[in-house]
Amino acid sequence: MKQYETVIGLEVHVELATKTKIFCSCSTAFGGSPNTHTCPVCTGMPGSLPVLNKQVVEYAMAVGLATNCTITQNCKFDRKNYFYPDNPQNYQISQLYFPICRDGGIEIDVNGTKKTVRIHEIHMEEDAGKLMHDEWEDCSLVDFNRSGVPLIEIVSEPDMRSSDEVITYLEKLRLIIQYLGASDCKLQEGSMRADVNLSVNEVGASEFGTRTEMKNLNSFKAIARAIQGERARQIELIEDGKTVTQETRRWDDNKEYSYAMRSKEDAQDYRYFPEPDLVPIVISDEWMAKVKAEQPELRDEKRFRYKTEYEIPEYDADIITSSKKMADIFEATVAMCKQPKKVSNWLMVETMRLIKEKEIEPEDISFSPENLAKLIQLVEAGTINGGVAKEVFEQIFTNNIDPEKYVKEKGLNQVNDEGELRATIEQIIAENPQSVEDYNNGKEKAIGFLVGQTMKAMKGKANPGMVNQLLKELL
C-alpha cells in the first residue's frame, strides 16, 4: 500500500492593533455600523492619496524581530491589481519585491519532537472590505469598514507535515503577536486568518505534489478538519489516476467539504508594480534598535521565569502563560498579595472552570487583579472561608465586584465564635444519633456528614477548622 506525505505551508493574515487604518485616519474598531468607518482614501475615491501609518511599520518590525527575521531596512510598497467587489480601488497596496521581513523561523515542539518552521517573509498590506449576501433581497452588499485595516501577512515555507504541527505553529505565532501587543489575534473576529497551502506526494518522492490553497478557516479546529479533508481528497484523486488541480478552494466547516473557488493565480496575474503614491520606507539602525529594545518578555522566557522566581509547578506556568491576559493578571495579583501559589491556584482551578462554563476565551476575562488579591487576603486573614471565597469569586469573575464590600454587604464574614459554633454542633449531634454511633464504631467518614450539616446550619460561614476540632472534642 502506498504511503503519502502531506506538505503544508501557511499564509497567515493578522490585523494589527492600530487605532487607525494603514493609509488614512479612519477607525479600525470592530463591529461598527456598515460603512461608518470610511473616507475617500479607504473607499478608493479618485484623487485621494494614502499616508502611511508609522505604527504599522513598528508592529511589523516587532513581529519580524520576535520571529528571527531579517529586517529589510529599505523596503517599499507595490500595487497588486485585481477586480473584486469588496476592493474599491481595483488594486491592493501590498509588498512583493521588498517585504519588510524575510528569512525567519520559529521552533515548535510536537509531542517532544522539536523542529523549526521557516518563515519566508512578512509583508504589510491593506485589508479589503467585506461582502454580505442578503438572502431576502437576493443581492450582495459591501461594508467598507474593514477596507484599509492594516495587515501583516506571514508566509511560511512548506515545512509542516501534519495538522498537529500546523496548530502548534499557529498557537505559538498567535502568542508571540499577542504578547507583543501587535494584535488580539481573535480568529472569530477575523483579526487572524490562515490560508492553508497543501499538497500530497508519495513518501520518498523527489518533488512535491500539486498544491491547493484553502480559505475560509476561522478556527483552529476548522483548520485541522480542513487539512484532514483536503489530504483525503487529494489522495483519492491520485489513487483514481486523476490529477490534482492547482486552485483556491473554500472550506465549508459545516459540511466538512471544500469546493473550488478559482484557479490559483501567480504573481504575474496581478500585474504588480511599485506603488507610485508612497515613498520607500527607510528603517534606520536607531529605529530598529528602539523597536527591539521595547520588545516585551515573550511566553518562553516568562514560563521559565515563573518556575524559577515564583516556584510554581511547570504545568501551572504552561497554562498561565498560554494566555497573555492570564499572565498579566497573575503578575499583577502576585505583586499585590505576595502569594504566587495561591494566585496560581485561583487561576488554574476556579478561573479555568468558569471560562469553560461560560464558553469564553481567556483574553475576554474582565476582572481586575486588585479584586483577586483582595479575595486572597480575605481568606488568608480568616475573614471568609474557602466555600464562601468560591461564591465571592464567581461574582468577581462575572461582575468584577469589590470582595471586601460584597462580603460586608452580604454578611459573609467567617464565624469564629467558639460559643456559637459549640451550641450549633451540640444541636447537630443531638439531631443525628445514627452518625454519632457510626463515628463511635470507627466509621471516620461519619464526621464528614456532621461537618456538612454544621456548615449548612451556619449558612456556609463557619470556620471549617474549628468545626472539625469541636466536633471531635464533643464526640
From TrEMBL:
NCBIfam families named among the record's database cross-references: gatB (TIGR00133), PRK05477.1-2 (NF004012), PRK05477.1-4 (NF004014)
Xref: Pfam families: GatB_N, GatB_Yqey
The protein's role, per its UniProt record: Allows the formation of correctly charged Asn-tRNA(Asn) or Gln-tRNA(Gln) through the transamidation of misacylated Asp-tRNA(Asn) or Glu-tRNA(Gln) in organisms which lack either or both of asparaginyl-tRNA or glutaminyl-tRNA synthetases. The reaction takes place in the presence of glutamine and ATP through an activated phospho-Asp-tRNA(Asn) or phospho-Glu-tRNA(Gln).
Top EC group: ligase
UniProt subunit comment: Heterotrimer of A, B and C subunits.
Record-given protein name: Aspartyl/glutamyl-tRNA(Asn/Gln) amidotransferase subunit B
Swiss-Prot/TrEMBL keywords: ATP-binding, Ligase, Nucleotide-binding, Protein biosynthesis, Transferase
Highest taxon above the source species: Bacteria
Domain Asn/Gln amidotransferase, residue spans: 328-475
High-level lineage: Bacteria, Bacillati, Bacillota, Clostridia, Lachnospirales
GO biological process per UniProt: glutaminyl-tRNAGln biosynthesis via transamidation; translation
